[in-house]
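User: Please predict the structure of the protein below. I'd like the answer in structure-token form so I can feed it into my own downstream comparison script.

Assistant: Understood. Taking the following sequence of 212 residues as input:
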Amino acid sequence: MAIDFIDHRPNDLIGLVIFSGESFTQCPLTSDHAVLKNLMSKIESGMLTDGTAIGEGLATAVNRLKDAKTKSKVIILLTDGVNNAGAIAPLTAGEIAKTFGIRVYTIGVGTVGMAPYPFKTVFGIQYQNVPVQIDEEICKQISDATDGKYFRATNNKTLKEIYSEIDKLEKTKVEVTEFRRHSEEYFNYALAAGIFFALELLLKYTWLRKLT
């Protein structure tokens, strides 16, 4: 769903921050969406320390976005848990985002009730049902403070609708400068044609002339 959202924003600078018990910039801001989507496809559960550091994830995203020279700065914060790790409180990170004029849309992902969660065991990754707990109140406060909006996605359909709504809300005109590198390929052909022409003249007024 996120990749589909990226495809609908071809001229945007987009980056990717992942977080669990800690946060990490998977891809800095870029207009090369092929690279972005490739790095997104490499995300796996267990890449980072276990936990949910919402504040750390949001602060990392703010740090990447704060100096961008764009009219609109937006963070889409996707979480499926309750903040239980990290040195930065979620609301503090939200206030930092507000200071830099960054709008934050928060999305709580997960069904209501129980859901399968991957656990590492000696037999590999195994799934166990765990209760779904999302910091909805915190997410709402972050979005409200930054003029964003909170959404709850309980399945793929609603998540797709949420991304579509955010796409409609965040429309702005941008100027894109494209650079193209041209290489001239005619020189070799022109050189060959010139040699044949010179040879024709030489033969016409020397050897072929004597034969006639």
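That's the full token string. Residues 186-205 form the longest helix (20 residues).
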